[in-house]
Amino acid sequence: MKIVITDGYTLNPGDLSWKVFHEFGEVAYYDRTPAALVAERCKDATIIITNKTPVNAETISAAANLKAIAVTATGYNIVDAAAAKIKIFLFAMCPCTEPIP
Q1: What is the dihedral of CA 22, 38, 6, 94, to 10 degrees?
Q2: How many angstroms separate the first and last alpha carbons of the chain?
Q3: What DSSP string runs through 21-55?
Q4: What local confidence, expressed as pLDDT, does residue 9 receive?
Q5: CB 3.0-4.6 Å disulfide test: which of 18, 35, 53, 60 passes with 7?
Q6: What's the pLDDT score for residue 72?
Q7: Which of the four pLDDT bands, split at 50, 70 and 90, describes residue 101?
């Protein structure tokens, strides 16, 4: 399993550790991801964790193994929800109690 953190600096400017994610699989961590690189960086992802990086239909479609997208922010307008519902198992905001409809 590959976990891609697209913009970790927005959540953790250096005071926290991302090590716990390594228990679940390979982790690709990026401080920030420009729009032009999102699809490339996420193409092998099983899980995408994003805060502010847009995840559009192109990125979702290109990620053949994608099973989940976690948005670590309020709101989920940065993710193409229609494309996510077609392709993946789980699309959720964190923390949350239910998947996004």
Answers
A1: -100
A2: 25
A3: GGGTSEEEE-S---GGGHHHHHTT-SEEEESSS-B
A4: 93
A5: 53
A6: 87
A7: low
